[in-house]
Write a structure and sequence with these properties.
Length: about 130
């Protein structure tokens, strides 16, 4: 695996994670505000910085998977990684007024974010 391929894969996943962060914030805000139609989203810059680091770490894990272990069943690997990352959010006490459906929508969106990132990495690294 060349450094150029790793960096390109990292950029693709970091761009996806940045876009997905805004989409997930929009989904959670819409579900939280339901049935009202007026809501706004705000994403802190520190979260976007973390998404870039997270994309780098995920790219390195994917590189190990696709270059040494194998390429089959990649979707299962990324579902498990996404679930592992999402479980940590469930143990942090959410605000008391957060509806359970917003937590579930956010968790499903996070796992989906990882699976799509895995597909992008399978495309770039395989």
């Amino acid at each position: 695996m060349t450094l150029g391929r790793l960096v390109l894969a990292w950029i693709v996943v970091a761009a996806w994670f940045g876009l997905a962060t805004f989409v997930i914030a929009y989904i959670v805000a819409a579900v939280t505000a339901f049935p009202q139609q007026n809501y706004s989203i705000a994403v802190p810059a520190s979260l976007l910085k973390w998404r870039v680091v997270e994309a780098g770490l995920l790219t390195l894990i994917a590189s190990l998977w696709f270059d040494s272990i194998g390429s089959g069943q990649w979707w299962l690997l990324f579902i498990l990684i996404g679930a592992l990352a999402t479980v940590a959010i469930w143990y942090v006490a959410p605000p008391a007024d957060t509806p359970r459906r917003a937590l579930i929508a956010g968790a499903v969106a996070d796992v989906t974010r990882y699976v799509i990132a895995g597909g992008l990495l399978a495309w770039r690294l395989s």
